[in-house]
Backbone:
């Protein structure tokens, strides 16, 4: 008898954080008309119909934490259906189908080790608070990977993550070897399981789903012949917005594929966690470090700029330099103050997520960590922790992803940086804005010549005029 073949589709659902960094309000986005903003429109086109069709029950998925927080507030019924899909999988298969994600869609290989730890710890805690269980797998933003990131995942108890075929450095045949999972060896005799997505199948779905002739046609003409030469598991991984938003109406493609056509093509549909449980890795692979699924130049798209985005991309390196210098100053000041209180500043930061998620009051958290301070000193510590939070948000990959500086996402990074600097000033009296503002002057748009210093001044002026100021 022929060996059984499995098919899994993983969908990554995410929207760039933007709008007001203090209140979290996105505000109106006229291009999203007739909806108030893009989150509303994409919920209507994609999140809601996929949830209502039951698609989330039959795929493997992850949602960005900032998107889930928005969904919980604005569309609690859709939010509940997302959580329910994972619960149903647990009930039916003994294991959930949702994966965690680092808190802020940060390109982790570009982050310092302690920032990697914080992003992963916060993402894990947020997942646990929402899904009510420990996550087994985690999605890496843009599939950006290096061994230090994988070590941090392993340290925090994660069993697996996902990469793309092009990121495998070992001899690897996308057909015969399939999705794995494979072991990746880590320093200190550790290892972590990695699933490998099929690039061609994933790209066909992500960029051309409406030209595939429907799920039945694609299954018969592509998945059936693929099965004959394929390894045991075939996995496609794409942005979840493919199904209904990037391609209108294609949530029906996903439904037919996963509930009928994949089986018709001879596959058993599975989720990543379920497959791993029954089929642990049997061989090792090596990965190309500092690569991602959406840049052909290592991580240059988010670091120095590259040909992945059109036009002048030199602003990216300049923006990162400005943020890095500010982050160093903030961290130095923060670590000095907190260290003097006899507490490890980075442990304190990792645990602060409970306060962010409103699971715990700030004062209670500090007391639990052994910091018995008077009210004023307590507020200073909480302000510094809030500064750390905004300094994490400012590294969201969206700030560097697109082609030009004069877009909302880079401004959002600067707005968060301004918040962080403000909070540090309130807590310590130190003004860190002078150097930051000067660094931003060389962050220049290739389209309209606007620079980061102007953007910063606008943000600060707007904030002074807004009713929430102070
Ligand atoms: Zn690139």
Residues:
């Amino acid at each position: 008898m022929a060996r059984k073949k499995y098919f899994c589709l993983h969908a990554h659902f995410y929207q760039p954080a933007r709008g007001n960094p203090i209140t979290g309000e996105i505000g109106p986005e006229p291009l999203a008309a007739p909806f108030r903003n893009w989150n509303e429109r994409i919920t209507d086109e994609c999140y809601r119909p996929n949830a209502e069709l039951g698609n989330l029950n039959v795929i493997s998925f992850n949602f960005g934490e900032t998107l889930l927080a928005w969904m919980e507030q604005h569309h609690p019924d859709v939010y509940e259906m997302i959580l329910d899909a994972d619960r149903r999988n647990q009930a039916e298969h003994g294991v959930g189908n949702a994966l965690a994600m680092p808190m802020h869609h940060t390109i982790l290989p570009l982050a310092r080790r302690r920032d990697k730890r914080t992003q992963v710890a916060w993402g894990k805690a947020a997942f646990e608070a929402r899904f009510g269980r420990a996550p087994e797998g985690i999605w890496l933003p843009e599939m950006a990977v290096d061994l230090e990131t994988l070590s941090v995942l392993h340290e925090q108890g994660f069993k697996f993550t996902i990469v793309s075929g092009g990121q495998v450095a070992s001899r690897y045949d996308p057909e015969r070897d399939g999705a794995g999972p494979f072991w990746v060896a880590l320093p200190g005799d550790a290892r972590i399981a990695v699933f490998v997505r099929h690039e061609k199948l994933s790209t066909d779905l992500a960029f051309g789903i409406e030209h595939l002739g429907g799920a039945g046609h694609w299954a018969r003409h592509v998945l059936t012949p693929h099965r004959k030469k394929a390894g045991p598991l075939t996995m496609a991984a794409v942005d979840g917005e493919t199904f209904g938003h990037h391609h209108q109406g294609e949530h029906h493609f996903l439904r037919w594929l996963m509930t009928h056509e994949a089986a018709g093509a001879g596959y058993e549909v599975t989720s990543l966690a379920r497959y791993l449980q029954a089929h642990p890795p049997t061989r090792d692979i090596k990965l190309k470090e500092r690569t991602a699924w959406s840049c052909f130049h290592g991580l240059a798209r988010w670091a120095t700029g590259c040909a992945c985005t059109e036009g002048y991309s030199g602003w990216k390196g300049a923006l990162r330099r400005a943020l890095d210098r500010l982050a160093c100053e903030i961290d130095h000041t923060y670590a000095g103050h907190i260290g003097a209180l006899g507490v490890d500043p980075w442990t304190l930061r990792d645990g602060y997520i409970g306060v962010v998620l409103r699971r715990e009051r700030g004062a209670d958290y500090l007391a639990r960590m052994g910091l018995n301070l008077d009210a004023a000193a307590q507020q200073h510590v909480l302000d510094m922790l809030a500064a750390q939070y905004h300094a994490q948000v400012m590294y969201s990959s969206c700030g560097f992803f697109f082609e030009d500086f004069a877009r909302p996402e880079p401004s959002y990074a600067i707005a968060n940086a301004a918040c962080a600097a403000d909070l540090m000033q309130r807590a310590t009296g130190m003004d860190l804005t002078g150097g930051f503002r000067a660094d931003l002057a060389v962050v220049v748009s290739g389209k309209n010549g606007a620079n980061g210093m102007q953007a910063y001044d606008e943000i600060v002026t707007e904030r002074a005029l807004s009713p929430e100021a102070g």
